[in-house]
Structure formats: C-alpha cells, structure tokens
Amino acid sequence: MTDIDKLVMNLNFVRIPEGVIHLNDDRIKKKWAVDLTTFYLSKFLVTQEEYFLVMGDSPSACKGKNRPVESVSWFEAVTFCNKVSWQAGLRPCYQLIEKEVVIREEGANGY
What we know:
The protein is α+β, with helices and mostly antiparallel strands. A hairpin with a 2-residue loop joins strand 5 and strand 6. Strands 1-4 form a two-stranded antiparallel sheet. 27% of the residues lie in helices and 28% in strands.
C-alpha cells in the first residue's frame, strides 16, 4: 500500500446538508446567497506532508510536515482533490478549463 493509498483511506468526511449560505465580502461591500446541494467535507485539515505526497511540493509559509497546508489557491486545492480522486479510482468532481476557471462535474463521485 502506497502513502497516497493510506491518505485516501484516512480521509474522514462529514455530510453537509443542502441549504443556503449567506456570504459577505467586506472588502467590496457585497453580500449574496448561494444555494448548496449536499456535499461532504473533510473533518481534518490537509497536512503539508499529505499535500506533498499528492502534489510533489509544499507551498506553505509556516513549514512543518504535520502542520496544515496553507497558501494555496482555489485552483491548487481543486487540483489536489482531482489527483486524490484519480488515485482512489474515482471520477474527479472538477473540470479545470483554464487557470482559475473550474466547472463542477455533476454526478462525479470524487473528492
């Protein structure tokens, strides 16, 4: 069993029910609501060691293998999820159109 296989097996997820989330960006003085369908969210932050196993680098400023990975963009996080999905034999949830353009794949079973 590879380290990435162990990572996939150790992912713990909680079910987030469908609903509406209200967002607020004070920087641009904008408020909006987003309708969410049910999804699963990891109970734990991804460590720098786990991120390195999947991505081959660690962009974090506060270094430490057991510290959470930080300083990643949405695009990098989606790429990480897709790579973990492929490793687990699942269909990735995101289609990467171009830099910073991401489409959610309906019916996908990946992370």
